């Protein structure tokens, strides 16, 4: 981007291409703001054109600040705060209005291109015919490229209400009005469903053609990865002929601590009120030597730090998996402590749980989630 902007004044073709691409980004922001104003999550006191241009200016400025040495991240936060304060409004959130004003409306796909005011030259016209990939810095985006760019732009929007509206209207995600999605989390998936009170914290990376559902009052802390490869599409069977489910479901009242990895090429199911604790656990659903592509975790379970779940692994309700364990098979008996490499049943913990010497079965309730 910096190179394109520097070359643009000296090369008309690149200058026109940059103008087209900035116009598309501004048009995207315009559609997000307009959609938010229509559903009531963005204040309608300012024209959407003004807010879109303001967001574009702040976005470009924050890109520069992010690359500059020195104490610039605080300046970026100040700029984001100034953006919110710039637009007059009520209820303490000048740009977005109050959270109570947000209501759910059915998702309607946005026509493309949107009738945004101003000229919208074509890419071919900007470059004098068919684009030359060796001469034009920015090429035409495919739909998958657009979704990734849209997801990246949304992570930089300054308020939860605006991010939520943008995700719903630009990418079609189903997000409850009480759910929260923090900034600086890259979420580019095929389908996202967030239940009431769900919370996705910052610095997460969720990507690929997967369906992700997060239940009511569940939270995913920072620096988690949920990945699904494009190669696992509907037409791509596994090495053993099975289809990849490309799905992850987190039940109600769950807590996923920072720094875990989830391979969602297959299917990962996490029951209600589970706690994926500590850091560094990995959950795998594919492998060259196994036909299995699922990981199932029952309700009211606790997973310690640095655990590994192999494809086909499953644990029953009220199970505790101790630190560093490697779960390679299915355990169908509830109220068990598992541990070891590979994991095995160490003892029955039902009496400990029922006498509340252990809080398994109430992990997230005990921690206030």
Ordered list of secondary-structure elements with their pairings:
Layout: H1 2-7, H2 12-39, H3 48-67, H4 72-86, H5 123-126, H6 143-155, H7 160-171, E1 174-175, E2 180-181, E3 186-194, E4 199-200, E5 205-214, E6 219-220, E7 225-227, E8 247-250, E9 255-256, E10 261-263, E11 267-270, E12 275-276, E13 282-283, E14 294-297, E15 302-303, E16 308-309, E17 314-315, E18 320-321, E19 326-327, E20 330-331, E21 336-339, E22 344-348, H8 350-354, H9 363-366
What does this structure look like?
The chain is an alpha/beta fold and 369 residues long. The protein has 2 domains: 1-103 and 119-172, no CATH class; 173-369, Hexapeptide repeat proteins (UDP N-Acetylglucosamine Acyltransferase, domain 1). It contains 9 helices and 22 strands. The protein has helices spanning 2-7, 12-39, 48-67, 72-86, 123-126, 143-155, 160-171, 350-354, 363-366, and strands spanning 174-175, 180-181, 186-194, 199-200, 205-214, 219-220, 225-227, 247-250, 255-256, 261-263, 267-270, 275-276, 282-283, 294-297, 302-303, 308-309, 314-315, 320-321, 326-327, 330-331, 336-339, 344-348. The strands form 2 sheets. Strands 1, 3, 5, 7, 8, 10, 11, 13, 14, 16, 17, 19 and 20 form a 13-stranded parallel beta sheet that branches. InterPro entries: Hexapeptide_acetyltransf, Tet_transcr_reg_TetR-rel_C_sf, Trimer_LpxA-like_sf. It comes from Sabulicella glaciei. This is Acyltransferase.
Strand content: 15-25%
Helix content: 25-40%
The total count of strands amounts to 22
Shape label: elongated
Uncertain runs are: 71-142, 363-369
Number of helices: 9
CATH superfamily of the largest domain: Hexapeptide repeat proteins
Overall pLDDT metric:
76
Largest pleated sheet: 13 strands, parallel
Would you tell me which CATH topology of the largest domain applies? Answer: UDP N-Acetylglucosamine Acyltransferase, domain 1
Oligomeric nature of the chains: single chain
* Cα distance spanning the termini: 42 Å
* CATH class placement of the largest domain: Mainly Beta
From the helix content, strand content and strand pairing, which structural class follows?
Answer: alpha/beta
Radius of gyration: 24 Å
CATH architecture of the largest domain: 3 Solenoid
How many domains, in number, for the residues?
2
Protein name: Acyltransferase
Organism: Sabulicella glaciei
């Amino acid at each position: 981007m910096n190179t394109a902007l520097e070359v643009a004044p000296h090369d008309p073709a690149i200058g026109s291409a940059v103008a087209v691409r900035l116009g598309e980004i501004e048009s995207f922001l315009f559609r997000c703001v307009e959609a938010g104003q229509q559903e009531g999550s963005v204040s309608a006191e300012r024209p959407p054109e003004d807010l879109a241009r303001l967001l574009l200016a702040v976005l470009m400025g924050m890109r520069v600040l992010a690359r500059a040495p020195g104490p610039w991240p605080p300046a970026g936060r100040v700029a984001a705060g100034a953006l919110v304060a710039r637009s007059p409004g009520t209820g303490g959130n000048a740009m977005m209005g109050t959270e109570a004003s947000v209501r759910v409306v059915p998702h309607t796909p946005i026509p493309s291109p949107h009738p945004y005011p101003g000229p919208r030259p074509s890419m071919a016209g900007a470059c004098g015919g068919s684009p030359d990939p060796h001469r034009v810095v920015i090429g035409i985006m495919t739909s998958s490229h657009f979704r990734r760019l849209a997801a990246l732009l949304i992570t930089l929007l300054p308020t939860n209400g605006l991010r939520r509206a943008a995700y719903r209207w630009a990418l079609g995600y189903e997000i409850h009005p009480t759910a929260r999605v923090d900034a600086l989390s890259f979420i580019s998936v095929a389908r996202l469903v967030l239940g009431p009170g769900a919370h996705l914290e910052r610095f997460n990376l969720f990507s690929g053609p997967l369906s992700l559902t997060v239940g009511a009052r569940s939270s995913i802390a920072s620096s988690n990865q949920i990945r699904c490869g494009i190669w696992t599409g509907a037409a791509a069977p596994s090495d053993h002929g099975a289809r990849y489910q490309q799905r992850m479901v987190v039940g109600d009242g769950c807590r996923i601590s920072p720094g875990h990895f989830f391979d969602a090429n297959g299917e990962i199911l996490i029951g209600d009120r589970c706690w994926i604790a500590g850091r560094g656990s990995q959950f795998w659903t594919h492998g060259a030597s196994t036909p299995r592509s699922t990981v199932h975790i029952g309700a009211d379970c606790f997973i310690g730090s640095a655990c590994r779940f192999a494809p086909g692994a499953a644990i029953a309700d009220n199970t505790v998996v101790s630190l560093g364990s490697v779960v390679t098979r299915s355990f169908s008996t509830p109220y068990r402590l598992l541990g070891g490499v590979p994991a095995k049943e160490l003892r029955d913990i039902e009496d400990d749980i029922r006498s509340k010497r252990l809080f398994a079965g109430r992990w997230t309730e005990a921690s206030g989630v």
